[in-house]
Structure formats: C-alpha cells, structure tokens
Design goal:
heterodimer, A: about 475 residues, Formate dehydrogenase/DMSO reductase fold, 18 helices, about 70% helix, B: about 1050 residues, alpha/beta, N-terminal domain of TfIIb, Rossmann fold, seven-stranded mixed sheet, 35 helices, about 20% strand, globular
Chain lengths: ~475, ~1050
C-alpha cells in the first residue's frame, strides 16, 4: 500500500522543528505584534541617516549640476549607471524565486520568496533613482514618457534603449509589486484577525482588501498567482536583457557585444541570489526564523550561485576569446589593454571582478562550505562586490579609452557626492527593508503552511494504522459505517 | 396617448404672464455680485464666501509671485531707431586689429550696435582674409571687465578718478611745466601713417625729445643685421609660396614669427597637393623645442639652444660660405649638410629664416640666403615688413637715461616693459626718477600702475586710425562702437599737449581725404578697409628696391659666434605660444583656454622637457605604455626650480616628445602680477590671476639685443607637484589608421591610389565605396534630396594654429569653463585640434607630429541620434546632426556613443543661464574659477552672438556647422530669388582659417567647391572611422610629408 505514501524519503523537511500551523502563525507574526528590538532601531536609524546623506548628495547634484560628479567629456557614465545596473541585477532574484520557481514547483521557495520579492521591489526602486537623477535636467524627466502633448505631438524616441529601459523597468516594478502584494493578502488578513490594537486592525483590515479566506478567495488567489507568475517569468529575462541593450546596441568597443543579454541575466540572478543570502542570513537570525529559512535553503541558493557564477565566468572568457578572435583592433584593445592588462589604469578592477565572480564562488562545489553560514555570508558580500565591479569594468573601462586616442580620459575617481548617492540608495533600501520586516511577515505564512512536513506527519499518524488494514476490511468497515 | 397635462405649479397650470416672463429669464436668481450695489465688500450679498475666495486667490498669487525670485534683466528698445539699422540684422565694418606692431585687416560684425565677431578682410593684400587665434579673440578684449573706465591719477599707489579730460590735461601740463629734462614717448612699433605724423609733430614741439619703439618680441637682431648687410634697418617681405625648400632655424613662422597669418597662407600654398602632379615644398626645421612650425616640418632636427648660432654658421659653411664650420654633434652635422644640399639644388627657390634675435646669427642667415639665391625671389625688398621696428639698444639707452635722471617726461603707450623686459628692475627704478610719467594703456598693467597719470586709450574697435604693416599696404581703422568708457586716443593727447587745435579724428580724415583723392576715395578706403599698392606716402621712406647684399659684416659675425658662450648642462629657451604671444592679451579667457597646439595645455605655462628627462630624473619611462598611461592620466606634474643669474622660478615640467634633452622650453606671456599681487584681479584681470609664471626675467641683454636663449640654467628637483590642465592627455594615435592617414610624397607619387585601394578593399564586401552606404546596413536607404552639407579638411594645409577654435567660441557662444573644470576634463570646445606624435620617444629628431581638427562629423547614420530617449539630437533633412537644447534631458548617452568624442556637456552652470539662480557660487567639488564668472559679467556678455542660444546647465552641445549662418545664407539666396551657392555661406572655422584647409558646402550641388574638392582629391580622401558605417559628412585629406630620405636619394 505504499502507493498512497507521498513522503519524500531523500529530502529533509523544508521547515524544521515540530511546527503546528498555529506555531507558524505565531512565529512569523510575532515581530509585527511585538515592539521592535534595539537592534532594529539601530539598523533603521542608520539606514535613515544614510538616506538623508543620499538626499543631500542628490540635492547638490540637482542644484549645481552633474559637475558634482567626476564624470567627464569622455566618461559620460560611471558610478551612476554602474549602480543602476547593479541594483537592477539584485532585483532579479525575487521574481525569479517567486515566479520561475513557482512554475517549476520548487517548494523550497516558500521559505524565502516573501523577503526576496520585497528585496526585489526595493532594489528596483533604488535602481530607478540612478537613471532619473543622473539626468542633467531632471525636472524635464517626463519627456521620456509617451504622453500626448501640444508640441507637435512630440514623442520620445522609440529607437533608444534608454526608452526601452523606462518601459522595461516600470513594467517589471509594477508586476513585481502586484505579485508581492497578491501573496501578502492572506497574511495581512491573518494579522488583522489576530490584531488587538485598533489601528492595527484598521490598517491591516484595509490592506487585506476584505480577505475572508473563503474557498472562492483562495481559488482566485491561486489563479491570480499563477497568471502573475506567468507574466513575471519573461520579465525576469527581459528586464536585464533590455538593460544590457543600453550597451549592446551602442558602437562603443567593449559594449557592442551580442553576448550581453544572456550574460547580463545570468549575472543578475547571480548577484540577486547573493543579496538574498546576505539579507536572509541576518533576517533569520534577528527574527529567529531559523526553522523556516533553513540551512537547506541556503544550500540550494548556493548551488544557484555557483551555477550562475560559472555561467558568468564562461561569458567573460567568451568575450575575451572573441575580442582576440574577432581581430577588431578597437575591441581587442578594449579587452586586452583596458582590462586584462593589470598595469593599465583600471586593470585592477578587472581582476577584482574576475576573482570575486568567477573564482571565489567555486568553493561552493563543496557541500560543507555551502552549508556554512559564515562562509555563505562572506561569499554573498564578495559576489556583490564582484558584480558591482563587473558593471564598473564594462562601463568605465570601455568608454575611457575608445576609438579616438585624443579623447582618452584622465583617471576617473568618484567624488564624495557620487559616493553619497550610492550610499543613499543603501539607505533607501534598508529603510524600506527594516519597515518591511517590522510591518509585514517576512516569510509567507499561508504559503509555508502548504509545505509543512506536519501535514505528512499527521497523515502518517492518522492513516498509518488504517493503511495496515486489508482493502477488504477497509471496504467492509466503510460499508458498515453508513 | 392621453392628453393629460402635468403641472408642477399654479403658474404653469394657468400660464400666467409673470410665469412666462420668469421662464424667459435665464438668470432667475441674482448673480452673486460684490461691488455693484455700492456698499463695499463686507456689506454685499455674499461677503464671507467671496472674501475668502479673493483672499485665497491673492494669497496664492502673492506666494507664487514672491517665491519665484527671477533675476530681472532689462531689454531697452531704441527710443529713436537709428537710420540704416534693422534690429536683428548685422552690419559689417572693415577695420584693423592692432596689437603692438601687429596689424591685421579685419571685418567686424556688428549686431544691434555691438561688435560680436571679427573676420579677416579678404581684400587685404597681406593676410588675404586669414586670421589668427589672437585676432579672433581680441573682440573679447573690448568687453574686458578690467579695462580702465576713466582717466586716473595715481595717488600713493591708489588710482583716483580724474573727472574730465581737461582736468587731466591740466594735471599733466602742470607737471610738465618748467622741466629741463628730455621728453620721451615710448611705444611699440607704430605702423600707422597718421600716428607717426602726429608723433613727429609733437616731438618737434619739445626740443630734444625722442620716440622710442619697444617690442616685447624684439626683431632688433634682424634689423641691425639687415642694416649691416643691405644698408637699411628694415625687414624685407618673405615669400614662402615661392620656396621649394624652406629651412627654418628656430623661427616659428607659422605661429608667432613676424607675420604668421601671411606666412601660414604662403606656406600652405606650397603644400597643397595637386593629385595629377603631386609636388610640395620641403620644410626643414632646426630648433631647440617642439614649436608649432616644427611640428609641421618634413624634416626636423633638434639642438641645444646654445648651438643655434653654430647651426646657422655650419649651414653657411655647407652652402659654400667663406666661413669654417663649427663643431657640432654628428647627426646635426649630417642634417645640416642634407639641408644645404637641398637648398643649393633649389637655388632661387629656397628660403632660410631664423628666429634668433642675435645680430650675428641674422647676419649669417643673410649670407646663407644670398648664397642660395633667395634674395629677389623668396625675399624681396620692394615692400618692407614694417611690423617690427624696435631696437633693443635704444630702449636700454632710455633705461640708463632714466636712471641718470635725464628724462623728465615719459609717455608710455601700449607697452609693458615692467612685465616683459629682462631689464625691468632698472626700468622700474628709472621710472621712479622720471617726474612726469603718463600711460595711455587701457588697463592698470604692471607698468601703468607705476605711472602717475593714466589716460586710457580706446580699444581698436572704438577708434579711428590706420596701419601700414607692409609698405604700400594700408589698413584703415574705424570705430564700430561708441567708446564704452571715458577713453581718448593717445594721438589726441599728443596733439593737445603739443598745442594742436584739431582732434586726431579730424586730422585722420583730412589726411586720408587728401591722400586718396577726395572724400569718395576716403569713403571707399574705409569701406574696403584696405588701400593696397600705395606708392606715395608721406612719412614713409621709399622702399629699398633690389637691395644689394654686402658681405662686409660677415667675418666679424662669424668670429663673434665662435666666441659665444658655450652651453651648460641644462639650457633654457623662451618661446611664444600661438595663443598667448607676448602676453598682451593675457586676460583673455578664450586664449587662456585655447589649448596649446603642442602640449594641449591650457591656463598655464610650464617647462617643456624631453621624455628622457622624465626618465632620468623621475624614473618614469614614458616609452613603457603602462608607465605612460599612469603618468598621463593624472594631471599632477613635478615642479622644478630653475635658476639663472638672479632669476629663479618654480615651474612644472611637461614631457613633450621631440624636445631635445636637458632643455627647458618655457612660454612667455604668462604670470601677470601687479606690484601688490592682491590687485592683479582688479588691475590686470581676473582671468590672468594665477595663470602661469613670468619667465621674461630669464631673457638677457647680450649688449646689443635681447636674447631668449639662456645657455645655462641650474635645475633642482622639488617635492612639489602642480596640476597642469591639458585637454588631451594621450599623444600617440596608436596606429589607428582610420583616424589618421599619412604618407610620404614619394609613396604617394609611386602609389597614388594606396588609400583609395584600402578603402575599396575594406568596402568590397558591401559592393564598393559607392554602395557602402546602402549595403552596410540592414535598414532601408533614404534619399537625400535638396541641400546636403559637407565639409572637407586638408590635413596637409592645417598648421594647427587654433584660429578656428577661437572663431568657433566667438561665433557659437561656447562657454569658458576655467582651469578647475579643464582639469576635470570638462572643456567645452566644439572644435578641437587633436595632436598626435609618431616616432621614437627617446630620439627627438624622429618625432613627427600631425594635427587633426576634430569636430562633429555630422554622421548620416549617427550613433548619437538613435540612443537619445527624447530625440533631442536628430538629423535634419540637410544632413545636419542637430541639437534641440530645450528637449535635451542630459542623459549623456549620445556622448558615450559618439566615436569621435566631440559632444560636450554642460556639467555646471557656466553661462548663468540655468533655471537655478545663484548656483555658481558654491565651494567644494566643481568650484568655478573667477574667469568663468567674469565671462558672465553683463559687460562681457555683450560679446554673445544673439543668433545662438546660450546653453544652460545640464544639456549636451556640439558643433552645429554654424547652422545660424546656413539659415542666413539660404535666406539670402531665397530673398534674391536664386539658387543657393557656395559664396552664401562659410562656417566660422572655415572663414577664420588662414590656410584654407577647410572647404564647406552643398555636396548635392555638383558645381560646389566641396564636390570639386572631393573629386580632385579622391586619392587622399578618407572619412575618420569610416568602417563603422556612421557615414560622416566630413571628409579628411591624408597628410603628405616630404621627408628627408628623398632629398638624400636625390643628392
């Protein structure tokens, strides 16, 4: 009678500890109902301070001009667009986890998807700051929107990859936000139902849109989740593809490369998962969620990191090979002189990138290291440093010495206000993240109940004796019961 | 249907009269009214609601009005419109640029009463419409904020206004009364016929008085040598166009020597290539630095500054002169003999010029020119060059007389010996001993502030006058704007102080009316601006025709040279930059920000040294590209301490390939400073503050003339570094053959189609050059009917002088960004002249230099256009890549994607045109220099071209092919109801170019000059980065050199 057993004997349970449904609710919603800890306050205020510094930096830039940054006539983009692509890359993991893994029925995703999606939304918000504030005249940024106007009518230039960015990012942001919020609804209702404070009841009541947990609600919820997952899946691939078009469609040697779309997507997933690791390792510790975000999750995500890191590595080597094989003097100069040559002005950046992105993740071939929290946290930071340098290398080492040697640039270093803007987006990100961890359940309460080992255990406990009966006895008993 | 009647009131039921009437009235209730009942607001029907409405509106309106603090700018229309003046339509007046002895015929463009642009006068027989960077920039001097605005008397070293000219005259005459000493007038070379008459007349009233002419860049060596060799203290006319072989011994004749605009044009004539019969002159340059002229040379040899006399002597010996050759390094000796053979092989078609100010060297050069048959062919005496007449010893005599107290009155006009004379200390001391010192300078320069009475002279655009740069060629000067300040021509003062009743203006008019056969002739001369071929002029001695050479002084000169001081370990040479010259215009931001053609440095002078020097002293091997990359990408340059005699100097060193080893070459014209340095900004000008170091004190008097060659300096390293602002940091073109194409004349003769064949091969996969445009892309091809603009630049004609760069600034209101911003690579030049070196860094003789004017290529398939998210940059139907500044949001994507790197971004508020007021005053990152703020002064802004938008912060800009001129030209043709032709339009750069290196026009018109130029030069034609399929509308003609190997082969 083993055909009735659907318990996996190989995989360890996704939620450890002998949790009941109620335990889960209590565990995850506890931080929302309790007062925030000291640690939370310190983190939150630091984030707000960083945000204020960022706002100040950007204000200076808006008033005095982009000259507040060290960009120049040759290097038109540097930290601004590097940071933009970096944040956008980070914003890839959440949707990948919630959408693609949902479609692939990877149940482990339920432990991490909520936090990862939130991270995605905040990262995209941060990313969006850069293309907006890097404009020389940000007050006319609305020119990029295709709205009917009295100027002719004058439309934006649909040939421009920057315009594609506008659409790609705003679409991605909207869908991610909807998906995230849709998943939040049952949990918000749970908080509402448990709430004793008036404002909490009101706030979560309004936010849960009258969720009653009826079967019809659940059915619609599931259907909507699936539709949104279907919508987000191509977006995961398209957003970074389009971001890579900013470079790939240009004529700049080092940018003009057909390999960019897959390479950028792999890099984005790579850095996104690294960021999820960094955040969750801290979150699970601080909010005591080790039983929900288990070492199994960490292990699985590290596997993805080593996979995508290796894809990125292959892309790097392919680029180099093509630079040599293509015999384009400008392209080979951009790669072999501006990057591979360690003694060239930015040679060091290339080797930081190679070391962090290609070599270091290889340690995750070892199970022991994959399951080591300290190593994982350290690596996740290293990977994100490496991925930042990847974008810096692509952007700056390509443009600073390209076709016309007379235009070759002086050594670019950021000013305090460029750094301030970047720090400010960290402030923005963590301000949101801390608020999120205080006011929303960081693990999807409703979803994690689906995968609870408890269900299986209960089944085994109740159905075990019955399974031992013969079918005839069972049928006999069944008939007599009625 | 029932006939029931429904009613809602008795009135309706009964249809009463009052009801009907009431129905017709549209406004049955009274309209809310405030004031018609005459009871005032509070008593009216709805006082409270209306009151609140009014209150709300007025509060909101007041808040809005008060919060938008917009600077008020007044536009004052004419009360009475002057005749012949249409607002918005430019007037052009011919006049003359004067700076020291230099005189250039120009045409001033005047818009609504203010001159905004200077062009060369094509009628001039001397310059033929060419200009230089300094001429182009001189319009800005008119609006210089540091100009003196009224007569001044110095009281305890503080300038105090003198209320009227009469009061000033009285002050001076009181001071001069009862003096026994000599009366001296100190001026630069005066080329003006009438001024000379005025001076002569004035001097005759003061017995014993004299006129001393003083030139900062003195030619007394040549004047004295010519006196010895030809019997006359004068300078002949040079004809570089007639020379097949030109040997320059350190003369920068294309940039700063004597009459560079004229010479550049002549020189380029001999270098334009006719593809059917390619031939060109060969230019040898022997020099101790890399000058702009040397950069153009076919064959270049470097030597120590102290060897320059020996080189001349060796050349004379080699061409068969009766002198013994001095000892010289082997390669130099070989070079001299090749040059000599070439000179002799082209007897009568050779020319040797020398930049030396030594009488002996110039005597030797005269002998060489005699030996190679230059006299009468490439050097003629029918018309003399009158632009340099100063004799150093006369000035030296004046200084000693002043110190002995023999001079009682010294009038100084337009010279600044306290700054630019090596003897300035003695001059200063002497000046204190002169009782009456009057300066006519337009600003409180170093000399003027030490004078007692200062009566500023007007700018040359504000006055009448004339100039005769060459005998018989007179250039007329007329005011194109009423004097901006209370100034008076110094001739007026001389006439008044010598008891003359007429004014200079009247005298001028009378003189020329009589000379030119009546008023009509006078008027025509003013209109043309020039009178050529004048043979009878009073005040000018008849020209020396067919001067006979007399070798009498030769032996003495040769022996003097062999006993000249030998050079030390380190030597120094002073030179003039093509931008700054002697420093007369050193408060001119356009010139200060004009990159030097060789170093591409701005805002400073520095010591040019060889790369070997950097290697020996600092251990940086610039031949190693890793080390040079690191070195060049940071602006910090090592500072050295140089000492010679009593002069000492701390100056940064800049490595320049082609510099001889152990030589420091430093430009004069920088380091302006008032007696109290705090006053420099107010007296000399804000832009001049801190710009470089003054090296004039290193010049020295050899007993007869002033030498700029310092045979021995001691040098010391310091730990200091100084940031030098260069606009180009990388010198090699990295073998990028689609950027620069260059070949030797013999190669070109042998294989004329080499470049064309390469292009054909490259494009063969697209079906050849003619199909490349269509086949090189996936996109459909669009026809280009009508006008299509195109430009061609001949790299063989471009000498790198930078006149076009400044012309572009003036025409297009291109901003000045100041040194701080140039250091951050934020310069705004729409047009730049790229400079590339080839050769072996360690061997200065092997270095060859190429100049390439680089501007927007107006690509037909422009990579900048498709990446702009808002279409702010787009393509016109006439092939222009155009910028809509108002649409630009400033993403800078276009600049990243421009392969030519010609797009310029307004990083900060350089123009004061920004939406944010008061945002130029910040400190910290991006602090703007005072010079940028100076450019935003209301006075300076008068120079702006009203046809061109002043760009605000945050937008991208770049070359527009002078679209305002194109529109103007098309409209002109349209109004005259004819087809547009070449003559209707010239771009600013094209017009300024003295060598006509730029051809511009409609490439769809088969008869246009541009089409002709492209057809005739098919073999040398190429487009930069053509293989990218960006389809530039600018074509270049490859540079052809005529190197020495060919001379060797022939010999």
């Amino acid at each position: 009678m083993s055909s009735l057993k659907y318990e996996s004997q190989v995989r360890p349970p996704l939620v450890s500890g002998d949790k009941s449904y109620h335990d889960i609710t209590v565990d995850i919603i506890r931080p929302i109902e309790n007062r925030p800890s000291r640690l939370w306050w310190i983190g939150f205020l630091t984030a707000v301070l960083l945000l204020c510094f960022g706002i100040f930096s950007v204000t200076r830039e808006v008033i005095y001009g982009v000259g507040q940054w060290n960009l120049n006539k040759t290097v038109g983009w540097a930290w601004d667009i590097t940071n933009f692509v970096w944040w956008i890359g980070i914003g890839h993991a959440g949707t990948l986890i919630s959408a693609i893994l949902l479609l692939f029925r990877q149940q482990w995703r339920t432990g991490v998807n909520r936090a990862a999606e939130a991270m995605t939304i905040f990262a995209v918000l941060c990313a969006g700051q850069f293309p907006i504030w890097h404009m020389g005249r940000v007050w006319v940024a609305f020119f990029t929107l295709p709205y009917p106007n009295t100027r002719g009518s004058l439309w934006p230039n649909f040939n421009s990859p920057l315009l594609w960015d506008v659409f790609a990012i705003s679409t991605y942001f909207t869908v991610s936000l909807l998906f995230w919020y849709c998943g939040l609804l049952p949990d918000l209702a749970t908080i509402r139902d448990r709430a004793k404070l008036k404002w909490r009841k009101f706030f979560y009541g309004a936010a849960s849109f009258g969720w009653s947990g009826s079967t019809k609600h659940w059915q619609r919820h599931e259907a909507l989740s699936l539709v949104l997952a279907g919508l987000s899946t191509p977006l995961v691939l398209s957003v970074h593809t389009i971001v890579s078009f900013d470079f790939a469609t240009s004529v700049v040697p080092g940018w003009h490369t057909t390999i960019f779309p897959p390479y950028f997507v792999a890099g984005a997933v790579f850095s996104g998962f690294a960021m999820v690791q960094s955040l969750l390792i801290i979150t699970r510790k601080v909010l005591k969620l080790e039983e929900y975000i288990t070492i199994e999750h960490i292990d699985v995500m590290n596997k993805i990191i080593v996979l995508t890191g290796s894809i990125v590595g292959i892309a790097y080597l392919t680029e180099l090979f093509i630079a040599w094989y293509g015999q384009n003097p400008y392209e080979s100069f951009a790669f072999l002189q501006n990057r591979v040559n360690l003694l060239s002005p930015y040679g060091w950046a290339y080797y930081i990138m190679m070391g962090c992105n290609v070599l270091s993740p290889q340690i995750f071939w070892f199970r022991k290291l994959r399951r080591n929290l300290v190593v994982t946290f350290f690596m996740s930071v290293i990977v994100n440093i490496g991925m930042w340098f990847e974008r810096f290398v692509i952007i700056v080492t390509s443009v600073y010495r390209e076709y016309i040697p007379s235009g070759w640039s002086t050594y670019y270093t950021p000013t305090i206000w460029e750094i301030g803007f970047y720090m400010g987006t960290f402030g923005l990100f963590f301000t949101f993240y801390f608020l999120f961890s205080k006011f929303f359940p960081v693990v999807a309460v409703a979803e994690i109940k689906h995968i609870l080992k408890k269900a299986g255990e209960n089944y085994k406990a109740e159905m075990g004796p019955e399974e031992k009966e013969s079918i005839e006895a069972f049928a006999h008993e069944y008939e007599h019961a009625h | 249907m029932s006939e029931k009647k429904y009613w809602k009131s008795f009135g309706e039921l009964n249809l009463s009269e009052s009801y009907k009437k009431d129905q017709e009235n549209e406004f049955r209730e009274d309209l809310p009214s405030v004031l018609d009942d005459g009871k005032g607001m509070m008593d009216s029907k709805h006082p409270r609601r209306d009151f609140l409405k009014y209150l709300g509106f007025s509060t909101a309106a007041a808040t809005l009005a008060a919060s938008c603090e917009m600077p008020v700018r007044h536009v004052v229309p004419y009360l009475v419109k002057p005749d012949n003046m249409v607002p918005g339509v430019a007037d052009y007046y011919a006049t003359t640029f004067i700076s020291g002895g230099d005189a250039v015929s120009i045409v001033a463009k005047v818009r609504d009463g203010r001159p905004i642009k200077l062009e060369g006068n094509e009628l001039s027989g001397v310059t033929k419409g060419g200009t230089s960077a300094r001429v182009q920039a001189s319009i800005l001097d008119l609006y210089d904020t540091a100009r003196l605005r009224y007569p001044v008397q110095m009281v305890n070293n503080v300038p105090q206004e003198v209320t009227s000219f009469e009061a000033f005259d009285k002050l001076v005459s009181d001071s001069m009364a009862g003096q026994k000493g000599t009366f001296v007038l100190l001026t630069p070379t005066i080329t003006s016929v009438t001024t000379k008459l005025v001076i002569a007349d004035c001097l005759s009233k003061y017995p014993g008085s004299r006129h001393v002419q003083y030139d900062a860049d003195s030619f007394s060596g040549m004047l004295l040598a010519n006196e010895a060799s030809f019997g006359k203290r004068s300078i002949p006319s040079y004809h570089f166009e007639n020379a097949k072989v030109i040997v320059s011994l350190g003369a920068d004749f294309l940039g700063t020597w004597l009459s560079p605009i004229e010479f550049a044009r002549q020189y380029a004539t001999g270098r334009k290539i006719d593809e059917k019969a390619p031939a060109m002159n060969r230019h040898y340059q022997f020099e101790s630095l890399l000058s702009m002229t040397g950069a153009n040379a076919d064959v270049r040899y470097t030597h120590k500054p102290s060897e320059s006399a020996a080189v001349a002597l060796a050349l004379l010996a080699a061409v068969g002169g009766a002198v013994s050759a001095p000892s010289l390094p082997e390669n130099l000796k070989a070079g001299v003999s090749v040059a000599a053979r070439d000179l002799l092989a082209n007897k009568g078609k050779s020319l040797v010029v020398s930049g030396s100010n030594s009488k002996e060297v110039q005597t030797i050069v005269n002998a060489i020119n005699e030996a190679v048959g230059a006299n009468g062919t490439t050097i003629t005496w029918e018309a003399e060059n009158l632009t340099r007449q100063g004799i150093d010893s006369e000035f030296a005599k004046l200084v000693s007389d002043m110190n002995q107290g023999a001079i009682s009155t010294l009038l100084i006009y337009d010279v600044n010996p306290v700054y630019d004379n090596p003897n300035s200390k003695n001059f200063k001391a002497g000046l204190a001993k002169v009782k009456t010192t009057v300066s006519f300078s337009g600003r409180l320069d170093e000399t003027t502030e030490l004078c007692k009475y200062i009566l500023p002279s007007p700018h040359f655009l504000e006055r009448w006058g004339d100039a005769q740069p060459r005998t018989g060629s007179v250039s007329m000067m007329q005011p194109v704007i009423a004097p901006l300040f209370r100034t008076r021509p110094f001739e007026d003062s001389l006439m008044i102080w010598s008891g003359n009743k007429t004014s200079y203006d009247n005298f001028f008019k009378q003189y020329w009316t009589a000379k030119l056969g009546g008023y009509n002739g006078y008027e025509k001369a003013l209109q043309d601006g020039v009178v050529d071929q004048m043979t009878t002029l009073a005040g000018v001695v008849a020209p020396l025709t067919g001067a006979k050479y007399n070798a009498g002084s030769l032996a003495a000169a040769a022996s003097a040279i062999s006993s000249m001081k030998k050079g030390g370990t380190y030597e120094m040479i002073l030179y003039q930059q093509v931008s700054m010259g002697t420093g007369a215009q050193s408060n001119n931001p356009w010139l200060l920000e004009l990159p030097d053609p060789i170093t591409r440095g701005t805002w400073d002078n520095y010591a040019m040294v060889s790369p070997n020097f950097i290697k020996e002293q600092y251990g940086i091997n610039l031949s190693d590209h890793n080390q040079s990359d690191k070195f060049e990408s940071h602006p910090e340059r090592q500072v050295v301490r140089l000492k010679s005699g009593n002069s000492e100097l701390l100056i940064p060193v800049v490595a320049v390939p082609g510099m001889p080893d152990a030589v420091f070459a430093i430009a004069v014209g920088y380091g302006r400073e008032s007696a109290d340095p705090k006053n420099t900004g107010a007296y000399i000008g804000l832009a001049a503050v801190g710009a470089g170091k003054n090296v004039y004190p290193f010049a020295w008097d050899n007993g007869t003339t002033v030498e700029w060659i310092v045979p021995e300096v001691s040098f010391e390293k310091t730990t200091e570094v100084y940031k030098v602002a260069q606009v180009q940091i990388h010198g090699s073109y990295e073998g990028r053959t689609s950027v620069i194409k260059e070949l030797a004349l013999s190669e070109f003769v042998k294989e004329p189609e080499e470049i064309l064949d390469d292009r054909k091969k490259e494009m063969s996969k697209f079906g050849g050059i003619e199909n490349f445009e269509k086949e090189g892309t996936l996109y459909p091809y669009a026809d280009k009917p009508g006008i299509h603009w195109g430009m061609q630049i001949d790299l063989n004609s471009c000498v790198g002088c930078g006149a076009c760069v400044v012309a572009c600034h003036a025409e297009n209101n291109v901003s000045i960004v100041g040194k701080n911003e140039v250091l951050r690579y934020h310069d705004m030049h729409w047009l730049r002249i790229d400079r590339y070196f080839t050769g072996n860094l360690a061997d200065p003789n092997s270095i060859e230099t190429v100049f390439q004017p680089m501007l927007c290529q107006h690509c037909d398939n422009a990579p900048c256009e498709n990446v702009c998210p808002v279409s702010a940059t787009n393509h016109s139907t006439e092939g222009l890549n155009q910028m809509a500044y108002n649409r630009c949001i400033g993403t800078r994507y276009c600049a990243n994607n421009c392969p030519f790197k010609v797009r310029r971004f307004n990083w900060e508020d350089y123009t004061g045109a920004d939406s944010f007021p008061n945002n130029q005053d910040q400190n910290g990152v991006g602090k703007l220099n005072e010079s940028v703020l100076m450019m935003n002064d209301d006075l300076t802004r008068m120079v702006l071209n009203p046809d061109v938008v002043v760009r605000s912060r945050g937008v991208m800009e770049k070359c527009s092919f002078c679209v305002q001129r194109l529109q103007d030209g098309k409209l002109k043709a349209k109004k005259e109801n004819r087809v547009f032709t070449d003559g209707d339009v010239k771009t600013a750069c094209q017009q300024a170019c003295p060598t006509e290196a730029i051809v511009f026009g409609n490439i769809n018109n088969t008869k246009s000059a541009i089409v002709k130029a492209r057809q005739e030069n098919e073999h040398r034609l190429y487009h930069v980065l053509e293989e990218l399929h960006v389809l530039p509308n600018i074509s270049y003609l490859a540079k052809v050199r005529n190197p020495e190997s060919e001379a060797k082969e022939k010999a």
